[in-house]
Amino acid sequence: MVYWNDKGRGIPLTNGPCNPYGLYISCEACKHSTLMVWADVLNRWPLGTFSRDMARSLKCSQCGERQGSIMVAAQTP
Ligand SMILES: [Zn+2]
C-alpha cells in the first residue's frame, strides 16, 4: 500500500512483462475506492512516475480530498 503522504517515493511505473491486473485506488478521507485497470494506469501516468507521486495526484471523485492510496491488484478480481 502506498499513501499520498509516504516519506519515500515508492517504485517507478514500468511497463514490464509481469504487469499487474491494475491498481486499487482508495481515498483515505472517505474510504471510497475503485479499481483502475493497468491500461488506464499507463494512459494516466508516464512511465517512471513514482507510486507515491501517483497517489498524490489522485483527487477523490466522491469527497474531493487528495488523500489517495494505491495498492497493486495482482489478478482479475
Ligand atoms: Zn474521498
Q: How would you describe this structure to a colleague?
A:
The chain has 77 residues and is an alpha+beta fold. The chain has one domain: Rubrerythrin, domain 2 (Single Sheet), CATH 2.20.28. The chain contains 2 helices and 4 strands. It has helices at 38-44, 51-57; strands at 2-3, 22-27, 33-37, 68-73. Strands 1-4-2-3 form a 4-stranded antiparallel sheet. β2 and β3 form a beta hairpin. The longest helix is centred in the middle third of the chain and has 7 residues, at 38-44. The model has no long low-confidence stretch (mean pLDDT 94). The structure holds zinc ion. Zinc ion is lined by residues 27, 29-30, 32, 60, 62-63, 65.
The strand order across the widest sheet is 1-4-2-3
Number of domains: 1
Uncertain runs: none
Could you state the order of secondary-structure elements as H and E? EEEHHE
Q: Ends: how far apart? A: 17 Å
Share of helix, binned: 10-25%
| Average pLDDT over all residues | 94
The CATH architecture classification is Single Sheet
The number of helices is: 2
Number of strands: 4
CATH class membership: Mainly Beta
Radius of gyration: 12 Å
Describe the main β-sheet briefly.
4 strands, antiparallel
Shape: globular
Q: What structural class do the secondary elements suggest?
A: alpha+beta
CATH topology assignment? Rubrerythrin, domain 2
**What share of residues are in beta strands?**
15-25%
Oligomer: single chain
Which distinct ligands sit in these coordinates?
A: zinc ion
